[in-house]
Amino acid sequence: MTIDLTDRVDAEPAETTQTATWVAICRLDDLVPERGVAALVRGTQVAVFRLLDDAVYAVQQLDPYSNACVLSRGIVGTRGGAPTVASPMYKQVFDLRDGACLDPMGKEPVDLVPYAVQVTDGVIHLALPPTVAAQPTTDPPTRP
Amino acid sequence: MTTVTRTRDRTPDTTGRKRLVVVGGGMAARRLIDALRARDERDEWAVTLLCEETRAPYDRVALTSYFTGRDPDALALGDQGVWDDPLVTIRRGVAATAVDRHAQTVTTSAGTTLGYDALVLATGSYAAVPPVPGKDLRGAFVYRTIDDVADLRTYVETLRRETDRPLRGAVVGGGLLGLEAAGALQALAVESTVVEFAPRLMPLQVDEGGGEALRRLIEGLGVTVRTSTATAKISGTRGRVARMVFAEGPALPIDVVIFAVGVRPRDELARDCGLPVGERGGVIVDDACATSDPNIWAIGEVANIGGRCLGLVAPAYTMAEIVADRLLGGEGTFPGADLSTKLKLLGVDVASFGDAFATEPGALEVVISDPVGGVYKKLVMSDDARTLRGGILVGDASAYAALRPMVGRPLGGDPAAYLLPEGAAAAPMGDLPDDAAVCSCNNVTAGTIRCAVADKGCTDVAGVKACTLAGTSCGSCVPLVKKLVTTELEKAGVTVSNALCEHFDLSRAELFDVVRVQGLTTFSAIIDRHGRGRGCDICKPVVASILASLDLGHVLAGEQATLQDTNDHVLANLQKDGSYSVVPRIPGGEVTPEGLIAIGQVAQDFGLYTKITGGQRIDLFGARIEQLPAIWSRLINAGFESGHAYGKALRTVKSCVGSTWCRYGVQDSVGLAIALELRYRGLRSPHKIKLGVSGCARECAEARGKDVGVIATDHGWNVYVGGNGGFTPRHAVLLAEDLDTDTLVRTIDRYLMYYVRTADRLQRTAVWQADHEGGLDAIRAVIMDDALGICADLDAAMAVHVDSYEDEWAAVLSDPDTLRRFGSFVNAPDAVDPSLAYVAERGQPRPATPAERQDAGILIAGTTLEVRR
User: Fold this and answer.
1) A130, B38, B49, B622: which has the fewest C-beta neighbours closer than 10 Å?
2) Within this chain, do residues B145 and B294 fall inside the same structural domain, yes or no?
3) Lowest-pLDDT range of B36-50, B514-528, B830-844
4) Same domain, residue pair B33 and B79
5) How confident is the model at residue B856, as a pLDDT?
6) Residue where one domain finishes, among candidates B791, B806, B821
7) CA gap B104, B283 in Å, rounded
8) Minimum-distance CB partner of B826 among A48, A83, A88
9) Closest-CA distance of chain B to residue A116, Å
């Protein structure tokens, strides 16, 4: 599969499957190992992380504890065997694989929405849930 | 002694049990019920508590805290579940009116009659009101119960609605209770005067010197103090208090008066049923707390034990424990009261313990009196100056926890050393004898605490508190408890872990040494050799800081960039909405008009909120991540550089204007501050570092609130170290006097470098030097006398730092790879984060609140303010 990335803002065409829409985001090389980037996918902000072994994970960019879109800027690490990101705001720790909150820092645990990721020919693709794929909105994400 | 509550599974059947009636619902009664229910394994006793107040027993000692919140429940004592115990019946708002000793019954104000097998009188005291004319006017109060305090508050609030002028109040009585009451008036914003008949404040607890220190401290808080003053009468207008008339001198206009002249035992029940009472009141009891009637006991303030009534909670608790023990067939006796007190009155520490007035023949007094610092400390020693007999601490009672258990024991060393701040911290408390009382509120000895660790498996202070109750009442002994627990754990071979996190077993200081000695330069190498996993938000920034302190390249070079917290990663300070703030360095707070205009122009062009910081520079808020390089490019063109406000690093060197302009300045404080700031800028450290330089002893730069404070003298510079503001403010302590500038700089070089190398993660200088073995004296020996032979090494390390400094922001702007990190979105590097929204307030933007976001009409996006890039 080849994808033209010259216009990356709205990386069409997208490939639709039964349950999710795959959207090209950027090249793997655009990411630094053990750091995240933010991506804007049809108005929804997603945090995408590359690990040392080139595994790529994506979760929501909205930090549920501060309501700011900042999770891509957190420190990547491990807890036990789980790859994690710590929110840069109040330091809650989340499992990058499934978004589970591993350390709520004394608050109620709130999990993140995880996004499925495929890396094809050096290009990172995110699977958008049908709701997000169907709503090309530019509104800020809903704040709880 | 233990009062751990057991889970109960009982039927509420009280038939066939012995009946205990407790009269009076105060703190002693509560303790008695807790102790009895914890130890009455066979449920022998069913308890009825007659509680005249409509509330369950509450913490009367903390009454003044009622003013910081109106919630009486905040004063609740212990686990309120005790009132659900089927064998405990509480009758709120019901007083005992008579006792029939022959029939063994109590008649209540509700008209009922209760039979008893044992009766405990715990009726406490009345607040005494002196027989001055006018004492019954409206606006005259006592200070004893929650209702008293609530009435006072209501009265003051009513007056405040009637008048605009400041309200004035007086407290009759300058003892412990009087100063508490004055604190209550202060909390209600009523100007207060304390009137004391004796020649000093707190005449029962402190001596003349202590009273004088206390007066200065209290007056410094805006309370007027009149000692040796007799109140002749209170005169009124329309039934309300209006003036206080004294035996001598002009009258004092007042709106409210509180009588706090002492308490009288409420012994009328005992008198009426023929129990012997003392000459000055109080039910006479023996050292088992038994009255002359074998079925009646008395505890707390109403009990006259050893010939007097005791108004402190600790002996009341002891009496409660004894009666609980006796009711269950034990043989407990009253060991004599420890009348030691430690209080915070109006925020002023006061402690008095042992033979505070040196009444013993031949007793020696060691006194340290510092009127400037507001501290008075006295130790009373035996005639050979070896054994501690007692003492008084005013202004700083931090030594109380360590000293009080030593009463009656040899102190070891120079007594004066115990009165200096460092001496108190370094006192050899590990040697405390097992029978020494550590927590006098709950009567817990050092031995009990050691036993909790050694035999009962407690592994931390929280566990020991739960197990022994030590430190659970007033809390003043907690530092000592912690010390005992740590010592005991170490003795048992339990390592008190100072591991960084799950990835490293080493502490920051250990890791620093390892990295330096082995010459490791990357996180991967360090964690491969000394850790496990791939790190976390704790250890990664620590390693980044260590590598930066060792000056191993730019903080964002290569793998180091992945270690940084977002602030260090984008060289700006993350704010609550995800935007950043930018602080250009303004060394010493000196800035040209052109510089100010340039900063203002940048703020205006990028729509930033501006605020002057406490460190004499300007913070620009609301910058989006993708704007940071453009903002910095403008600032650098105007001659500014990074202020490192985002880093655990040197922040600012604050200065006063100094001898160049000031009429009083004796040295050029601005010149020195700029030189120091340029020397240490960019120095990465375990926590932020702030410096200050004052041009004379007036100390306008507040240098003693800084990690390193320099104060000019006629002969050179005094240097103070270990100060900080923040959550636990500390004054810096004198390190060296009258240094010339070169020696001063060398001394600060070594102090900072030694701190950077040996402190723990996020440990500021104050805690570091207090925890350093041997304290500041040992640090002084290392950096001024080269006791460890490392000074040349420290000097060389600082020289490397100074020589290798480069502006981090200039470096970022010249590196296209690094600049890529500042895109807002990887697939839309220039798109504005759509979740950011601002509203204008006082002519500047601020983040919109959630409610404001609902109404998009009032929002201004960051971009609309921006007129130029």
Assistant:
1) A130
2) no
3) B514-528
4) yes
5) 59
6) B806
7) 18
8) A48
9) 17
Q: Which of the four pLDDT bands, split at 50, 70 and 90, describes residue B150?
A: confident
Q: Is A14 among the domain residues? A: no
Q: How confident is the model at residue B463 (pLDDT cuts 50, 70, 90)?
A: confident
On whether any CB of chain A is under 8 Å from the CB of B854, the answer is no
Tell me if B272 sits within 8 A of B98, measured CB to CB: yes
Count of domains for chain B: 4
Same domain, B725 and B744: yes
Do B673 and B802 reside in the same domain of the chain? yes
B285 shares a domain with B150: no
Per-residue pLDDT, averaged over B644-668, amounts to 94
Place of tokens 């500042």: B822
Reported ipTM: 0.84
Is residue B731 pLDDT above 70, yes or no?
A: yes
User: Quick one: DSSP state of residue B860?
Assistant: B
Q: What is the pLDDT of residue A139?
A: 43
Q: Which domain holds residue B74?
A: 18-126+265-327
**Per-residue DSSP letters for B97-145?**
EEEETTTTEEEETTS-EEE-SEEEE---EEEP----TTTTSBTEEE-SS
Least CB-CB distance to B574: which of A62, A88, A143?
A88
In angstroms, the CA B624 to CA B203 distance is: 62
B807 in Cβ contact with A40 (< 8 Å)? no
Q: Domain of A118: which CATH number?
A: 2.102.10.10
Residue A142 belongs to some domain of the structure: no
Higher pLDDT, B540 or B520: B540
Does B167 map to a domain? yes
CA dihedral (B727, B733, B736, B739) positive or negative: positive
A22 is a domain residue: no
Closest alpha carbon to B449 in B425, B475, B480, B424: B480
Instruction: Please count the structural domains in chain A.
Output: 1
Domain holding A75, by residue range, is 31-133
Residues of A within 8 A of B569 (CB-CB) are 73
Contacts of B566 in chain A (CB under 8 A): 70, 73-74, 88
pLDDT for the residue numbered B192? 92
Question: What pLDDT is recorded for position A10?
Answer: 42
Q: What is the distance in angstroms between the Cα of B622 and the nearest Cα belonging to chain A?
A: 13
Among A49, A70, A123, the residue to mutate for chain B (most B Cβ within 10 A): A70
Do residue B186 and residue B152 come from a single domain? yes
Give residue B594's pLDDT: 96
Same-domain pairing of B270 and B244 = no
Look at residues B212, B228, B261 and tell me which one is the last residue of a structural domain.
B261
Round to whole Å and give the CA distance between B826 and B620: 26
CATH number at residue B727: 3.30.413.10
Mean pLDDT calculated for residue range B486-512: 79
For chain B, the average pLDDT equals: 86
Say whether residue B819 is in contact with chain A using an 8 A CB cutoff.
Answer: no
Give the total residue count for chain B.
Answer: 869
Chain B 529-558, residues with CB within 8 Å of chain A CB atoms: 533-537, 539-541
**Is B145 within a domain?**
yes
Least confident of A126-140, B394-408, B491-505: A126-140
Chain A environment of B578 (Cβ under 8 Å): 66, 68-70, 89
The confidence score (pLDDT) of residue B4 equals 43
With CB atoms and an 8 Å threshold, state whether B502 touches A80. Answer: yes
Asked if B625 contacts B573 with a C-beta cutoff of 8 angstroms, the reply is no
Residue A68 above 70 pLDDT? yes
CA distance, residue B50 to nearest chain A CA (Å): 41
Least confident of A112-126, B344-358, B601-615, B662-676: B344-358
Same domain, B668 and B768: yes
Is pLDDT above 80 for A7?
no
Count CB atoms within 10 A of the CB of residue B420.
15
- What is the rounded distance in angstroms from the CA atom of residue B127 to the CA atom of residue B176? 13
Are the Cβ atoms of A75 and B565 closer than 8 angstroms?
A: yes
- Does A142 score more than 60 pLDDT? no
In a domain, B787, yes or no: yes
